[in-house]
Amino acid sequence: MFFPKEMMEIELIVPAKYLLAVTKVLSGHGVFHQADSSYPSLGSGNTWQESAAGYAGLERRIQVIMQALSIDEGQPQANKEFETMGDLDVIRSAVEGMEDEVKQATDQRIAEKKRLEQLESTLHQLQPVADIDLDISSMRNSRYLFSMLGQIPAANVERLQTSLARVPNVFLTLRSDISKPVVWLAGTQANADVLERAARSAYLSPLSLPEEYHGTPAKIIAALQTTIESTNRKIADLELTLAQIGKTRIEQLRALLWDVHASRVMAEAIVRFGQLRYTYVVTGWVQSDDMESLTQRLKTASKEILIETLPTTRSGFNSNVPVAMQNSKFLKPFQMLVNTYSRPRYGELDPTWFIVFMFPFLFGAMFGDIGQGLVLTLLGYLMASKKVKSLSGLSGLGGVVALCGASATLFGFLYGSIFGFEEDVHIFGMKLEPLWISPIHHIMDVLMVAVGAGVVLLILAYLIGIFNYTVSKERGHLLFGHNGIAGFVLYLSLLGFGGASFGVLPVSPTVFLALAILAGVGVLFSEVFIHLVEGHRPLIDGGIGTYLIQAGVELFEVIISMLSNTLSYVRVGAFAVAHGGLSQAIFILAKLAGGGEDGGFGYWITLILGNLFIIGFEGLIVGIQTMRLSYYEFFSKFFTGGGMRFEPLTLKPVQEE
Amino acid sequence: MAASGVSGYAAISARVRAMYSALLSPQEMARLSDSPDFQSLLAQLKPTIYGSYIEELKEKELTPRRVVFQIKGRLAAVYDSVIHMAPEHTRPLLTQLYRYFEVENLKAVLRGIVTDPTWDRVRDVLFPYGSMSVLPLQAMVEAGNVSAAVELLRGTVYEETLSFAMKRYSAEQNLFPLEVALDLNYWRKLWQETKRLPSKDQQQALRVVGSLIDMNNLMWAIRYRVYHELSEEELINYTLPFGYHLRDDDIRSIAAGADIASVVQRVYPGIPDLNILLEEPRSGLPLLELQLKQNLMRQCMAAFVGDPFHIGIPLAYLVLCELEIQDMTVLLEAMFSRVSEEKYRPYLLKTALVKA
Hints:
The complex is a heterodimer of chains A (about 650) and B (about 350). Chain A is of the alpha+beta class. Chain A has helices at about 20-30, 45-70, 90-125, 135-140, 155-165, 190-200, 215-270, 290-300, 330-340, 350-365, 370-385, 395-415, 445-470, 475-480, 485-500, 510-525, 525-535, 545-570, 570-595, 600-635; strands spanning about 5-15, 30-35, 145-150, 170-175, 180-190, 205, 275, 280-285, 305-310, 320-325, 425, 430, 645. In chain A, about 60% of the residues lie in helices and about 10% in strands. In chain A, helix 13 crosses helix 19 (about 570-595). The N and C termini of chain B lie far apart (about 45 Å). In chain B, helix 5 (about 65-85) packs antiparallel against helix 6 (about 90-115) and helix 17 crosses helix 20.
């Protein structure tokens, strides 16, 4: 439950005649994570590589056709078995046939879209001069006047003006777009060459008006708009044609795509097998639970197959062991939060369970309000249940939002707050009183408790870190690491020193100071000690002077970060106070809107909008702060991550974790 | 609030100083240039910071082009590390500075398409930019022509810049307008990012970034006049109106035909024998550029003196790393082609700096 699923390493020796049958078993059930065993290889790996490339190319071409026809990939039939690998030549000719059918319409559509783009660009450039009553073509053929209308990169406008400082000219910005302003440059024909070179070097792209457009800008704009309309109609017709082709071909294309996909997966798997003279070597990883069923299936597929399995220990760095998380569906949203930071390594404690409790706890403490918490819970439920279509995209976060809302409700009871009301509130005839404390009225108490909670969480984080080092048998880091025993003792002794200095602890501060110095020396020379314990040589990389400077700064950083990590939890209390303060501000605004009275339409509307603002805006900020406390203050003490995802071979599309 | 001052720069400053000490000293560079041949040079490079990058190559891959590609990997790693360590408000500037190599890659790909559109050949001259770039360079080369390649840049930061330049390319069938547009856009953005920094950081960043801009802008102006014989207006449009010591008036004077030496003398009073250098531009301009680079190198080294809590130190270090790799490239190419010592030595920035 607290570690990723147990894995077994598997090595197979497969006789060549059973190659396809075994590959089908390995890739057909989504249980085998393949490792590359293609080196050294004696046989015809290139043939399989060519086949894999052939299938991949055809798969891409089918996808392009489907994209052109606006067909999604769909799913393979539920009971579909991919018995054999498709014949490349047969598939190729089928794909070519469909490409020919689609090509004419798609080519025409691309050409029309390009034309539309050009027409719109021309229109965009002409619109600023629409009011000028002058034949544009007369400017083009002017005898004495040089004139250029066009677009230029915004960054070049000023430079172009600078460059023309010594040449008589008129330069106007007709349309001040952020990226592509429309400008007009004019001068005498005698300076045409200079002006043209200057404009070109400033990347002024002149308006190129096709010959068929002439007359005043207004007349050309009208003609352009007519052409744009007819081009849009042409595009719509072509899209209709493509949609009709898509309707008749949809089933055939999807079936073909999944056949080719399965063949490609199998061919790519074989490329990564090690090929000997008559046999193939296959290595990979299987979850222990699936081992027995896979072994049986393999033996059914090939009686002569040799199967060797090796259990995997959780000690060591284990970066090559794939990681499959074993959390229930309920925990998936929190697992997503953990994976966003990093995936745990195989030998590392999965922190999802801690986050399940800690994340809503911190959120609720910062956002304690019964009413607003219940709204969030309802929102989370709607997100998770996918009952509201517009929220279904956020279903993955639904569980987190709902639990955070529930926690905020609980803290709302502790703080005695409902939709910001804290005084003279009656629920079902009972007066609402804080079960614990009202943050806005006991600011210092709340801040102190928040720091205290932070200390507890950090101690927990150090203990998990020590546990992780113990499990992975990294003795050097366990004893001397910044987050190992030396770091932990340093943190405790600094806390103790602070406590004793203020008279909270009945022990002399000197005792803690001595402990802190001892642990500090351990941290200062941690690299040396770790190298010593783990047998790495040389003990110091680079010179002693460089090491001491670096280690000294690092120790300084460690101590500063201990202090800042602890004080960082003040924000929990500060946000609880700010929440009360923001509610009070909303009440003042509501009273103003209600004409100085606690009631009336303006009062209640402002109150509702204010509460929605708090739920949306403050809720988001508190969510971000909670994530920050979890990731940077908590995780950084024990969670290394960097685990490789368990990606079993499968012939069908897989659901994302 | 963004971390700045001591808290923001303590760690990065210490680490950059530690990395700074791993740069090759002028004496080490001199020793490398004393190597009798290419193989000995590689052997001498093994114990240096570049050793681990070269070791990744197999024996038959040890050509100057491949080795240079590998050691550029060091610069990519340095950029990656510095950008991640830097205070958040300075990252846009550092990322933009790093984008120089992305722009160079883009230019190399466009040149490759025109001259020899095979990915295997183009790949070796690219900078190993890593995951910070999302440009489809291989697909661009495989597209086979410039228009199709530029189409692939839709949705990237280069789309808008190239949309205007492509109209000129279509008419002129020359990469020059595309390259100039990319360059101008890059340096303008770099300047904008510098100007967005708070005053202390901005002041320090200008020393490095401004000096880089001065050097490039001046060399463009001189080359456009001497080699390309562009008109005054074109020259102004193809250069930048800002800089550290170089003013727009200087660029406009060069464009208007003023004496180049006197302009350079005003901006860089310490450069000796300017008139001699500019007498024969074909041989003189590379040497002038070398002097400007040495000047830049001095500016960067000066950033390490005094208050260490500003962005100037990381910026200066990045530029110094790049200049060192330029030196290494000269050395590797020269040794492999067996160019005589007196021909390539003047082009080694570090050793020349010691002599100066």
